[in-house]
Amino acid sequence: MFRATPCPCIALAALFATGLFAAAAHAGTLPVREGPGARFDLPISGLLDGLAPGTQGHLDRSDLLALPTAVIDVTGKFGPQAKEARVLFLSDLVAALPAKPGADVLLASCNDGYLSVYTLDFIRRYRPYLVLQIAGRGPERWPPPGLAFNPAPFAIDASAALAAGVEEYRDIGHKRPWGVISVRLSSMEESFGAFFQGRWASPTPAAAAGREIWINSCASCHPGPPGATGGTKSGRPMEIVQAIAGANRAFFMQYVRKPTSLDPAAKMEPHPWYSDAEFDQLIAFLTAPAAP
After folding, report:
1. I want to staple 184 with a disulfide (CB 3.0 to 4.6 A). Which of 46, 66, 67, 242 is the partner?
2. What is the pTM of this model?
């Protein structure tokens, strides 16, 4: 199900549903306020007019709720009793931000060191959304009944009911984080520029494809070299992953597909769907020779 609010007429409902209303009527209107804000506001940084480089502001929760939101069916996502959630599509959020030229990536950081990466192309195509309320309750009253893990203060999700192909997207789980504590509006150059220089300035086709896998999946848990953003949840920087991939391909593949088969204490989630061809690409990226 999908219904947008407020919704005075069917024509406006259609505009809300596509995100066109927010893009047209709310472009650049969302105020970025100073400081970290209150407990359930959303800290934000990055390429934003009015926000000094290297500083953090916040998006007031009431300002987020004032944008065109939607109530959607989330049955099975946030516990057995939660059927609906009020959400803000990331496309509408980004459209309402006072973004600087070149901003093309939204990064969401979580309370466990996890990082989700959303390119503008992904946002437009798969319609991920920021969860503001679940079953009519804000995060001050989460977790929802029947759910042990608290998704507060924010969660991000995407639904096949709203965008075809969501479930077929490689590692879609990396785009569905809970415990989101801040966002950053960035650019591919600012966040991942190191992956387009040096050894990766002129990558082979396989290495270029592997770079996409790393940025959109592996970077969620593994910090990259200087000049490349990455999450810290794994505790293993990219250099360690490179060493393993270069030293023992079979071990690397088995570990990614089923980590606990090699290390019973492994924290990494299994990725059994990775094909041999995808491993070829990822390893080509990780082991690309250093630039002369």
Report:
1. 46
2. 0.89
pLDDT tens string 123-161? 999 999 999 999 999 999 999 999 999 999 999 999 999
Work out whether the CA dihedral 180, 182, 188, 194 comes out positive or negative.
negative
| 42: nearest Cα among 67, 24, 17 | 67
Strand, coil or helix: what is 157?
A: strand
Name the H helices within 72-163.
Answer: 90-96, 120-126
Q: Are residues 100 and 157 in the same domain?
A: yes
Strand boundaries in 55-179, DSSP class E? 56-59, 69-73, 84-89, 105-110, 115-119, 129-134, 155-157
Does 155 share its domain with 209? no
C-alpha dihedral, 254 to 259 to 264 to 265, nearest 10°? 140
Q: Are residues 103 and 213 in the same domain?
A: no
DSSP letters, 16-38, are HHHTHHHHHHSTT-S--EESS-S
